[in-house]
Every structure is written in structure tokens, then in C-alpha cells.
Amino acid sequence: MSADLQGAHEVLMAEQGRTVRVALGPIGALAAQRFAVACGDDSPIYTDAAAAHAAGYRSLAVPPLLLTSTRNWGPGPAAGLLAADGTPAADIGLPGGFGVRVMGGGQEIAFSGDVCVDTDVVAEFTLLDATRKSGRSGDLLIVELERRFSDVHGTTLITCNEQRILR
Amino acid sequence: MTNLRPGDPVPRLERTPSEVDLFRFSAMTWNAHRIHYDRPWAEHEGHPGVVVQAHLHGAYLAQAAMAAAGPGARLRSITWSNRRVVTAGTTVRVTGTVESITDALATMQLEERVGDDLCVTGTAVVEVRA
């Protein structure tokens, strides 16, 4: 199926500014520690409460890139709903059914508060913009997303502005 | 207050992510993209091996910046660009320089290389603490 960038663009522009809110709950110590192990990060602030307190955290810390690295916060999608390469057939900022492929285009992440293993986290995902461009390798869509992670009191903890390139 | 000064080098950080590491990272981040754990598929897409995830590169840069800043530091921002694909079993080396320090915020310019090949560039701002 050839990519229908025009169709994808129209769908994205209809979603521009829409925010999807997901209550993530606490990250939990095990997930935080497993992420740290996968990253080769042996800092004791993820495993040792005394070390975390000495560093100023109220409890065990969560590695700073865990929240923004996670690609999907739901239980799925089911394998049959994934593309052949394992990527989601549809996602926030990726409309399904248009034959487009997605590549990461960079990200800027700001951290404004500590995320600890018992922080009750709320995520908000907003499609900011989608722009058609022509490059040396052909036409593409630049999609700009904001992913914001806050505590349940509404205090922003992490803001990730990222670009995705659709072809 | 930290002894960090503008112009100081960021201590080198080396990582050699294995296929197991990449599988675990994808599992923890619920990332089913096959290029990160399925070698035949990665090769089918033209890569020489299983591909290191973009955010894992970011995590390496963050680790280097935090280690340079010292105990109690807080990462305040990070941005990075992936320039070349890196595959499992490859040793990456993160280096950098403290560009400036203003109001306890240290800005560091970071690079990740495989040998002499530049793979990732990035900037981290870390709040340093006494």
C-alpha cells in the first residue's frame, strides 16, 4: 500500500490540539529498577532508600527517561493490530490505514519535578501540529507531539516535545 | 556546591548494549518494533544487526550528564539527535564538555561515538546541588 500523506495529514489536522489523558498510577519500584538495569544504570537511588533520601528524593527514584521512553501505556495493541515490523498500525500522531511509516525525528525533554516510585502519574498526549514537506528523499509529514506527565495534583513533572516523521 | 566548572570534560561513559539489553529495554518500554530484538527482521530492513533504541541513547547521555554533576543532581532537560544507527554488541562512548553554569544549572554538550564515528549529539542541563 503506497503512503497517502494527504489523507493522513487531513486526519491529523482534525485532531490538532486534542489531548488524550491517561491515568498511569505509580510506576513502582520493580519497573523503575528493571528499566535502570536495561540501561546499564547502577545508581543506588533506584534501589536503596537511604541513597535516594540522601540525594533528596522522598522515596526510590524513577530513572528520568522511563516515562518518555515508554511507547504505549495501554495493555495492547494486540499483535494482530501491529504492522509487520511490530510498530503500531495507529497511534496518537499516527493515523491508521494510510500506509505511512513513522520515524523518530528528535525530542526535547524538560524535567520540572521528581518522579519517585510512588508518584501517582497522569499522562497527557497532545498533537500540536502536522506539516507536509518535500525533502530530497520525497514527501513527508512532520508531526509534533507533546507528552506531559504530571502528578494527580496537576503539577507538571516531565514535558516531552517530540517530532515524528511520516512517509 | 559542586566543583564543576565551564570547560570541564564530562567523564567518559562506555556502554556495550547486548541483544539481551535491547530486548529488555523494548520490553520495559512496550516497544514491539522488531528492529530492536529480531535480528533477521533488522537485517531485512537493511541494518547490520539489532538496532539500539533512540531513547536508550538518550538514557546513556543522561547517565553521563548526571555522573558528571555529582550526588543530588537533577536532570532538568535533555535533547538529542541520532546520527547513525548503532547495533547490539557495539561499544558506545559518551563524552562531552560543560559549556556553562548559571544559577546552579550546568549545560553540557554531549556526544556518543563508536570509534571515531559520531552517532549521537545532545545537550543536557543538570541542576547541581551542594
**Proportion of beta-strand residues of chain A:** 35-45%
- Our Rg estimate of chain B from Cα atoms comes to 16 Å
Helix content of chain B: 10-25%
Mean pLDDT of chain A comes to: 92
Q: Strand sequence of the main sheet of chain A, in spatial order?
A: 1-3-4-5-2
Secondary structure class of chain A reads alpha+beta
Oligomer: heterodimer
**Main β sheet profile of chain B:** 5 strands, antiparallel
- Flag low-confidence runs of chain A: none
Please state the structural category of chain B: alpha+beta
Biggest interface found: A-B, 37 and 39 residues
Broad shape of chain A: elongated
Helix content of chain A: 10-25%
Order of helices and strands of chain B: EHHHEEEE
If helices are DSSP runs of H or I spanning 4 or more residues, what is the number of helices of chain B? Answer: 3
In the predicted model, the low-confidence regions of chain B spanning at least 5 consecutive residues are none
Gap between N and C termini of chain B: 4 Å
- The end-to-end span of chain A amounts to 12 Å
